[in-house]
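Field log, afternoon session.

UNIT: design team B
ACTIVITY: writing a sequence onto a fixed backbone
BACKBONE:
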């Protein structure tokens, strides 16, 4: 077994990882491939996926710091005698609530670079200063420059709820990034990273020669850990941990290649030795939840959303599709792909247990606005399920819906109304991490929801009625013979018809039949 090393928690500096005996997953073969194949690159990945560390790795390669790469894939394949000037920018930690803050931060970064390279600025505005750096550095060193930009989109994402500021920040950055294209002759290599992929028209109209590798299968593992990385690099950390549970909790992110784990989760797990929603707790944007509510997106739909490749690539201040937003921020990932005519379509879903469970818990807390009560209800739900206390379940669900303020939902559309209440129902199970399938396909149709729990199967059908229960939900389960799909399991099967009153906005019918 390999020897234990230090866990590089929160460390984004390549030299510190290599010099201080930290674990390192070798990405240098991919870095070399990128350098040899092209010149200007862009890649988006969710937060805390190792984007900053990869940029720092590129910086050390181009600066020729050979000792850091002893034993790594690139070491024998790179000319370490050549030193390139590297201009690295990062917008990861600034306050961009006003355009002035963005300008001040960028000017500060330019000042540091000018002092480092001992260049006297000839211009006062950022694009002019960048232009001057590129020209003078090539003249001084005889080598073209490297431009690395980390969190290129954060000044826009941070202000999405203040769209006027977001637009100003976007337009300012567009002019700055356009300098890169204008000085192509002075640049050897460019790499931009961020969370989102803004459309070329909105942000990169001046930099339309960027190659987007976000969904390039060759670079799907550029950020993140693979199964092989977990089993080899981190072999010494696996003792005492359930390997299959590690996979179900943290693996599953897919950019059309091998699936990867979120590095932040894995390092926290190995440090704390217990499973938790580490990545999710580092900050879910409130505007994301607000958008789901504003657009009446039921949680039932989140694990099976269809999107075209153009939708996932189209993102701007005034045009944020729900699918692109959830995919780019890491709350959904690609589960399936299909070519239809000249367009590629993707089915999106939760990447893993952490996101599935945590996002539904967050949605519930937004509904009920009483986290203490929500915790009590979730514990009680689990206990009632274990006991198959269906009268207790009916009473508990009634209290769920009674706790939701009526102003949260005002739609009169009966199908949207049904989806809303069915989603609350579903999210309580999902927040416990239970095995729930929605729109469960059978030979006879689609069942609304299936729960597998405690070696038993629970089949749910939801209906909206005007006031009094009509028994249609349970009857549909029987008429459509939804249970046939599960008879071969030789487990108890419970048919549960739930009816919601459109007027009372609560459960009025809860019929149960066991097979």
């Amino acid at each position: 077994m390999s020897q234990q090393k230090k866990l590089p928690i929160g460390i984004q500096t390549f030299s510190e990882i290599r010099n201080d005996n930290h674990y390192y997953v070798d990405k240098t073969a991919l870095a070399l491939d990128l350098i040899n194949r092209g010149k200007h690159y862009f890649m988006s990945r969710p937060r805390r996926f190792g984007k900053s560390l990869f940029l720092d790795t590129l910086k050390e390669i181009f600066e020729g710091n050979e000792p850091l790469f002893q034993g790594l894939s690139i070491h024998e394949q790179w000319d370490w005698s050549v030193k390139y000037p590297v201009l690295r920018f990062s917008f990861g930690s600034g306050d961009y609530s006003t355009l002035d803050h963005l300008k001040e931060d960028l000017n500060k970064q330019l000042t540091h670079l000018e002092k480092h390279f001992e260049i006297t600025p000839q211009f006062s505005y950022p694009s002019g200063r960048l232009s001057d750096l590129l020209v003078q550095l090539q003249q001084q060193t005889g080598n073209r420059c490297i431009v690395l930009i980390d969190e290129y989109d954060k000044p826009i994402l941070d202000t999405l709820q203040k769209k006027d500021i977001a637009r100003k920040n976007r337009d300012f950055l567009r002019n700055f990034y356009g300098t890169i294209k204008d000085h192509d002759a002075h640049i050897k290599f460019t790499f931009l990273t961020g969370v989102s992929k803004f459309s070329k028209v909105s942000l990169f109209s001046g930099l339309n020669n960027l190659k987007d590798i976000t969904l390039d299968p060759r670079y799907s593992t550029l950020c993140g850990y693979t199964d092989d990385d977990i089993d080899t690099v981190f072999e010494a950390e696996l003792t005492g941990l359930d390997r299959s549970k590690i996979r179900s909790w943290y693996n599953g992110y897919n950019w059309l290649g091998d699936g990867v784990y979120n590095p932040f989760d894995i390092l926290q797990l190995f440090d704390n030795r217990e499973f938790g929603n580490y990545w999710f707790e580092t900050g879910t944007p409130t505007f994301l939840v607000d958008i789901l509510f504003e657009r009446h997106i039921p949680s039932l739909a989140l694990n099976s959303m269809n999107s075209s490749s153009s939708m996932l690539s189209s993102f701007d201040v005034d045009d944020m599709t729900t699918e692109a937003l959830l995919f780019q921020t890491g709350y959904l990932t690609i589960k399936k792909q299909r070519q239809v005519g000249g367009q590629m379509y993707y089915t999106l879903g939760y990447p893993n247990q952490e996101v599935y469970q945590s996002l539904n818990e967050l949605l519930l807390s937004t509904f009920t606005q009483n986290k203490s009560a929500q915790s009590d209800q979730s514990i009680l739900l689990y206990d009632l399920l274990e006991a198959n206390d269906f009268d207790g379940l009916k009473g508990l669900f009634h209290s769920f819906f009674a706790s939701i303020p009526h102003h949260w939902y005002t739609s009169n559309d009966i199908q949207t109304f049904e989806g809303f209440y069915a989603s609350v129902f579903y999210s309580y199970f999902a927040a416990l991490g239970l095995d729930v399938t929605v729109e469960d396909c059978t030979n006879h149709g689609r069942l609304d929801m299936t729960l597998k729990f405690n070696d038993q199967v629970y089949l749910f059908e939801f209906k909206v009625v005007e006031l009094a229960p009509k028994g249609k939900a349970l009857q549909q389960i029987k008429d459509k013979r939804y249970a046939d799909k599960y008879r071969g399991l030789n487990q108890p099967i419970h048919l549960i018809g739930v009816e919601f009153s459109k007027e009372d906005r609560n459960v009025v019918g809860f019929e149960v039949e066991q097979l």
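LOG NOTE: The longest strand covers residues 456-465.
NEXT ACTIVITY: expression trials, pending approval
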